[in-house]
Each structure stands twice: as C-alpha cells, then as structure tokens.
Write a structure and sequence with these properties.
By secondary structure, the protein is α/β, with parallel strands linked by helices. It has one domain: TIM Barrel. Helices cover 46% and strands 17% of the residues. It has ten helices and eight strands. It has an eight-stranded parallel barrel, surrounded by seven helices. Helix 8 links the parallel strand 6 and strand 7. Helix 2 runs parallel beside helix 3, helix 4 packs parallel to helix 6 and helix 7 crosses helix 8. It is globular and about 45 Å long. The protein starts with a helix and ends with a helix.
Length: 223
Amino acid sequence: MKRNELAERIDHTLLGPTATREGVVTLCEEAVRHGVAAACVNPYHATVAHEALKGSPVKLCVVIGFPHGMTTSGTKAEEAREAVAAGADELDMVINVAALKEGDYKAVEKDIQGVCAAAQATDRPVTVKVILETALLTDEEKVTGAKLAKKAGADYVKTSTGFGPGGATVEDVALLRKTVGEEMGVKAAGGIRDYETALAMIEAGASRIGASRTITILDSAEA
C-alpha cells in the first residue's frame, strides 16, 4: 500500500496521562505533515489540538469515557458535547464493558445513543466510533457489542483503547467487519506498531488504524 493511502487511514494518537500541551502540538504538526486522517487526543487537549490543526484537512478526534468506559451515560454525553463545542470532528467513546458482560444491553445502547445525540446536535458532521475493548470480551460479546453500536447509530466500531490487557487482532477485526457489514467503519487500535501489522488489519477489514507510532509505520510503506 502506498504511503499516502495508508496515512489517510491512520488516527495519530497521544492519549497517555502524561501527555503535555507541547506534545499535543507536536502530534498535530506530525499529523498535518504526514497527511493522516485524524489526530486523536484526550478531552483536556481538544482546544489545543483544534487550534494546531486549524486550516488543515486533518480531523480532530477526541476520546470519550476513556479509558475504562465506566462513567455514567450522562457524563459521557456531556463530555461529548464539550468535545464537539471545542471543535471535535470525531468522537471515540468507550462502552460500559461491565454492562455488556452483565447483559444490560439497554445501558450499553443508552451510553452510545447519548454520545451519538451529542454528535448530531451540530450543523457539521461528527463521526462516532465505539470502542469495545475486545480483549475483555468473548466473541459472542464482541458481536453483541458491535450490533448495539450499529443499532444506536454509531459510525464505527473500534477494537481497543490501547490501555487494556490486549490490542487489536486480525481475528477481531475480521469478526467485527463480518458483524457490521460494509455500512459501518471498523477501527483497529492497540499494539499496531509496524507497517506489516497495519496492513494485516486493513486486509482483515479495518477502514481506520489507531496508532501512536505512525511515523515508524509510514516509513516502511511504499513511496
């Protein structure tokens, strides 16, 4: 895959608890320079990133309920509204994994619907990606979570936060793609550190890649 084609599928991320404003600005400058799809940051840095990306085609992605997804639905919805007000073009939200595993599907769907409503309450398109944290789920739970995300109106399902016990796998990406069909996007994230892994995820059905080692990945791609 050509370097520019791969770059257009990558969300360049900086989400750790020690991320600084300077680091976020650098992330955004790299995102613009390499022509990636989005720069992904924590809500605290949304305004800084928005300013740094201004005038570029790179989208601002902000995480919601990150990294454990255990805040209330109302809190997630408000966090989403604040992110959109700060300029977010995309929202990557973490589901309530415990609710999914307990079979409280109404709670899971309500979580997602609240964030989707915040995304839709604006005059510009805002994409919602739903993080399932697949390493914590059985295959049956992954399928159920993906179906709930689709039913709630999300645009993407995403494998992982990168802060859980495991990241994206080819098998999980293929399972999610099979579950949601071609109508939704599938984002592979967590542990994608090289070109070969990124390409394998795309071949399995990923339409977007989340990575912090974007430059390393792109440097191995074809010119």
